[in-house]
Amino acid sequence: MTTPFTALGLPEPLARACESLGFVEPTPIQREAIPPALAGRDLLAQARTGSGKTLAFGLPLLSKIEPAALRTQALVLCPTRELADQVAKDLRAAARFLPNLKLITLCGGIPLRPQLASLEVAPDVVVGTPGRVLELLAENALSLEHVSTFVLDEADRMLDMGFVEDIRSLAKRLPKTAQTLLFSATFSEDIRAVAATLLRDPLELAAALDDAPKIDEWVHLVEGGQRHWAVMQVLADKAPDAALVFCNTRKETAALTEALQREGHAADALNGDLEQREREEVLTRFANGSLRVLVATDVAARGIDIAGLPMVISAEIASDADQHVHRIGRTGRAGETGQAVAIVTPAESHWRRSIEAARGAPFQERGLRLNPQRPKPQPAAFRTLQIDAGRQDKLRPGETPRAGHQGAEAAGEADRMTGYFWRFSAAE
Q1: What is the pTM of this model?
Q2: Smallest Cα–Cα separation from 219: which of 319, 316, 354, 358?
């Protein structure tokens, strides 16, 4: 028996937006979370990436917004700029029939000045990263005194990245009556400890676990010196359109990327050594098909949301079960079947055993024939042409001019920023 969005108690503009976006019925986490959230309950929800969690908290959040109030009424915290941008995009789509709603992103890695200008008229909804939101609070550019909904998205990642004290500091600035919605892929002891201090009589949900992704998962056992070659053999054998390859260190991402490029693979690295501009370039190329293989550390990959990612490879197996869950959760989404493979050496067997113990089942082992001949790499489907162009920021994406709002012009001399125009051509 299906449950339409209209049966969840949503206001008509939000239900209509869901219909216009092609959402026929809610996902399990949306079905379980939306009614109690609309009723004002705090939620502690376990939800994987790709489970529909953004609308699970976003639709109730938007239902309470009063644009005429001209004050910030909702705060959504995310671990990374990339995830914040994706959440903001989804919320804007859901709010398409809500007139005059102002939603902005506040994240680090970009100039502060345009964000200060954007806050001259208070936004209704702020989506951001903890550090940048605190920075703008310190500048007295942002007020949280009227926030009625506080969301922690991918809270486990934020704790992994060391944001727990920032989160606590922000929570102290919120009204005591604010509703808190905490979403996490896992319920670790640390998550429960944070939830105990931030949430009031929360309803605990794990409905998304009933909608487990379809992932064909296995391990290959190899010697340490065969790791790079094993990754290439997997890529040659399975020929995925795209693959996200995880390494445990920056040094190994660089070494593996160099090895892949040397053999002709359309591959590049994503690690903490990259500037924000370089990071965005790499992510754009991976998303548009100019790269088939993205090699990344777990920290660098936080917030990456690539629709339809067919394969995840752990060139080095994750060091704990939560990390493993985050990795494989990037594939097998939206009803599609994904593949997840870990390359395991004898020295990493203890990590394998700890993950198996946490998941309650052993990994499937598959043999890997190391072909002495060089595996033929798959060429990229597209090439990307980058054209640098200067532009002058006025309104930021998603902003609606209001009375007295001059966008970035209000800051006086507007910041000059570099823009990127991407054009795609089929690879020869």
Answers
A1: 0.66
A2: 316
